[in-house]
Structure formats: structure tokens, C-alpha cells
Amino acid sequence: MVNHEVIGGRLTDDEVYDLLSHPHRISAIRCLRRQDEAVSFNELAEYIAMEVEPDGDIRNGELIGQIKTQLHHAHLPKLLDAGVVEFSRETDLVRLTAEEELRPFFTEVSRIKVTT
């Protein structure tokens, strides 16, 4: 367990663990961390689908649609409110903005197997 009262002056450990409490947010952070640049909203949803249903068909419109809806209405706003990501509605791109603040938690995140 990481022992920081406040990360980067913004997030407490409890807030970070709350952000990491859902498999879609874990997958989103994992995806964004692996990219050098911003990722499209659609690419992010497809990445999450591949992690959630590794044996499934990511071309399955229903699965991708469900993930996009959840990402748009629940997970992306939570990450945005925490200042962890930026999202441009004009370009439909998502970018990780809090890599330094989350770095102590990345080892733990990388070990988490995503299941629903």
C-alpha cells in the first residue's frame, strides 16, 4: 500500500483507490498510461472492451455501446473531476494528466486483473 496523505497536493489515497475501484477506470488508466499521445474516445472504449472481455468479439456493437455509455456518463466524468484526465469534446481525445501523481499506484494497477 502506498503511504501518501495527499498525492501531488490533490488526491488522497482514498480518492485514488476510489478511482481504481471500477475495472473500466483501471482499464482506462492502463490504456492512457501506455500511450504517448491522447487516445480517441472510441479507441479507449475498445481497449476497455478487450480487457473486460478478452475472449469476446470487440466488434460486438452492444458491448462497445455499453462501455461507451458507462464511460461517457460515469467513468470519464469521475476521472475528469479528479483531474486525472483531460477530454476534448471537439477532438474526442482523452489524455492522462496525472501520471506523476498516480505513479506510486501504477505497480498495484498493473497487477489487477480486470473482470466484471
Explain the overall architecture.
The chain is an alpha+beta fold and 116 residues long. 56% of the residues lie in helices and 12% in strands. Helix 2 (23-34) packs across helix 3 (41-52) and helix 3 (41-52) crosses helix 4 (61-81).
Any chance you could write out the topology, listing elements then pairs?
Blueprint: E1 6-7, E2 11-12, H1 13-19, H2 23-34, E3 39-40, H3 41-52, H4 61-81, E4 85-88, E5 93-96, H5 99-111
Antiparallel strand pairs: 1-2, 3-5, 4-5
Helix pairs in contact: 2-3, 3-4
Largest sheet, described in full?
A: 3 strands, antiparallel
Globally, the shape reads globular
Please give the count of helices. 5
**Which structural class is indicated by helix and strand composition?**
alpha+beta
How is the largest sheet built, in terms of strand order? 3-5-4
How many β-strand stretches? 5
